[in-house]
Amino acid sequence: MARRRHQEEHENHERWLVSYADFITLLFAFFVVMYSISSINEGKYKILSDSLTGVFNQPDRAIKPIPVGDERPRTTEPDRSLVDEESTLSAADSLESIANSVREAFGDLIQAEQLKVSGNELWIEIELSSSLLFTSGDAIPNNAAFDIIEKIARILAPYENPVHVEGFTDNLPIQTAQFPTNWELSTARAASIVRMLAIEGVKPSRLAAVGYGEFQPIADNTTAEGRGRNRRVVLVISRNLDIRRSVSGVGSANAKPDAALQRAGTQPAKTPAAPAPQAGAVNPPSPAP
């Protein structure tokens, strides 16, 4: 008896559509994930990235021997009067150079009244509207802030003048978990700018941050225009540390180049002498080396 030939199944030529559809679905999901990653705030990402880089890329620290006795080189102290005079002249020249460089770099913002450069022979001020640097009620720099502060840092980096950053707000109250009052908001904004300057190459030892909250207005807080002027960040570049301490103690809005500041700008800080022991007093024992 003849065998019945098994009839071959009809070949399905459309099976590739299933694999193709799966591939398209995965590709779509991939691009959705990539888009969501790219939309992360660039300001937060750069601060985080640079901070981590600074932490993990610190050079190895090694214990160095301490020179003892005659092994230390003998040096001759220079004439302090000549050194102080030269440093005073160079500091004054650097203030003028910094002010001129900032005016050249930010002519458009100066014309738009978003940035202001002012000062005297003891310090200069770079005043920036907070709207250029931050969103309302936040201390995280926006993307435009990085370009502005990067330019300022390039101007400041070659010099040694002390810099302190002042934060100011309007008198509208803020009460959030992060910023209970305007004190915290103004201080956090000043600290953010200081951190950015350090990231961009300004020596951290030259920098300081201070927040004055709503208590040093330069305009009327009863109008929207006045409140906008009061929301500001001011970079104060001083001739020396004595000037910075004097200005930051009262705020740049209240500081005046009076006689005391003039002396601080031309004289080095004096080291306080140890008080003379009183009669009958017993001096405490010196600590062991």
Automatic annotation (TrEMBL):
Residues 249-289 are annotated as: Disordered. Residues 121-241 form the OmpA-like domain. GO terms for cellular component: plasma membrane. NCBIfam families: PRK09038.1 (NF006541). It is found in: Cell membrane. The chain crosses the membrane at residues 20-37. CDD domains: OmpA_C-like. The keyword Transcription regulation does not apply. This is Flagellar motor protein MotD. The gene is motD. It comes from Pseudomonas leptonychotis. Residues 264-281 have a biased composition (Low complexity). Belongs to the MotB family. Keywords: Cell membrane, Cell projection, Cilium, Flagellum, Membrane, Transmembrane, Transmembrane helix. The keyword Transmembrane helix applies. It is a single-pass membrane protein.
